[in-house]
Amino acid sequence: MKGYPIYILVSNTTSFVVVSKFLGEFFGTATLMFLGCMGCLDGFDNATTNFSRGIIFGFTVMVVILTFGVVSGAHINPVVSMAAYIYGDLSCTMVLIYFVAQFTGALCGYGLLMGVAPQAYFDQALVDGYGSCVTAPHSSLTSAEALAIEFIVTGILVWACCGVWDPRNAQHQDSVPVKFALLVAAISVAAGPATGASMNPARTLAPCVWNNSYHKIWIYFVGPPLAGVIMPIVYKYVFRREVNNVNEHTPPTPREQVCVCVVHNNESHFEKV
């Protein structure tokens, strides 16, 4: 061991790896909230649209996957971490660690945005609706309809994650960041006017806390997590197939290279360790 760099010894320990993954999820989710919600902020002589908000959130996800995908898998969403656990790609202990990182990262990311942007923009968003980047169902929807929409769109996202984790896709990982950028953008543009297309309890909670605005927040803590439990079970036992020929595919590295987020719509008052 003499002469062996101390940082290499430390970085190879289990504790260091766990801390690294925690920080990857923390800063990844913080980036999602800061950059994504900045794109939802009506201010600086810019009026956002549902399309612009969807695109911004989608490509923010791409940035996070490119940065932290090899570190923690860039889940940035408790629902994705739940699905990874059910799918067999994440331990129970790491799921809990990811949860803490994601929720605290979301709170810090949105808080940083409020710290650097004029307060007047956030105050005006509360006058016009439920707050900047706050997800809430459109007034034309019943609670059951909004719950169903959040369950379905989150299920689509979770199935996409399961498809990426499928052993048969081990050699098709290079374009995953772009694919998820377009996927999240498509879902966000489609479902944004209805529910804000959250798909992510951490993404929903942070703006609610900072704006003290909690209109029907329970929908976003029931629909997406329910999809995060049911959909990976269905995919795992109906669609997933193992690769028996080791020469046909190489093992995925890492297998949990995915993430999640969503868009606020002003019209919606709105792997193992």
UniProtKB/TrEMBL annotation:
Gene Ontology cellular-component annotations: plasma membrane
Keywords on record: Membrane, Transmembrane, Transmembrane helix, Transport
Q: Spell out the subcellular localization from the entry.
A: Membrane
Concerning Pfam families, the annotation shows: MIP (PF00230)
Q: Any keyword Membrane?
A: yes
| Xref: InterPro entries | Aquaporin-like, Aquaporin_transptr, MIP
Q: How does this chain sit within the bilayer?
A: Multi-pass membrane protein
Keyword Transmembrane belongs to the record: yes
From what superkingdom does this record's organism come? Eukaryota
One MF term from GO for this chain?
Answer: channel activity
Q: Per the similarity annotation, which family is this?
A: Belongs to the MIP/aquaporin (TC 1.A.8) family.
Q: What is this protein called?
A: Aquaporin
Record the organism: Anopheles christyi
Source species taxonomy = Eukaryota, Metazoa, Ecdysozoa, Arthropoda, Hexapoda
